[in-house]
Amino acid sequence: MAGNIFFLKNNWTASSWATFYVLQYLANRVADASAREMLTELIENNIPMLDLRGPQFAHLVDLIADDLPGNTPVLDDQLLQQELNALLSELIQYAREQQIENREIE
């Protein structure tokens, strides 16, 4: 099963395990209680999908763009590590592009 994270100009599609890693990462770090609850519901209900197109999600976009690059996990399996690094690199790029869009909207 694949997961998706939607941005204004891009859609990030990855395997569900990678998507759930990102959702859990965000849930563990987001300060806003309602955002944390929304992320937890997605995880608990096995819904690997997140829509970050609205400006109200700028704080989650910022976590991906600014915080995630320094906190990628280290896996024992080198092939999975390479796959995850490539996926997260693409996700981070999309989030950085979304940051620019969010600033223009403000």
Protein topology:
Elements lengths: L1 E5 L4 E5 H14 L3 H12 L4 E3 L6 H10 L10 H28 L1
Parallel strand pairs: 1-3
Antiparallel strand pairs: 1-2
Q: What is the structure about, briefly put?
A:
With 106 residues, the protein is an alpha+beta fold. The chain contains four helices and three strands, in the order ββααβαα.
| Major pleated sheet | 3 strands, mixed
Unreliable spans: none
Total helical segments: 4
What's the β-strand tally? 3
Helix content: 55-70%
**How many separate domains?**
1
Mean pLDDT: 95
- Enumerate the strands of the largest sheet in spatial order, edge to edge or round the barrel: 2-1-3
Structural class category:
alpha+beta
Order of helices and strands: EEHHEHH
Q: Tell me the span between the first and last alpha carbons.
A: 36 Å
DSSP strand (E) fraction? Answer: 5-15%
Question: Overall 3D geometry?
Answer: globular
Oligomer: single chain
Write down the Rg.
13 Å
Task: Give an overview of the whole structure.
The termini are far apart. The protein has helices at residues 16-29, 33-44, 58-67, 78-105, and strands spanning 2-6, 11-15, 49-51. It is globular and about 40 Å long. β1 and β2 (11-15) form a beta hairpin. The chain has one domain (2-105). It is of the alpha+beta class.
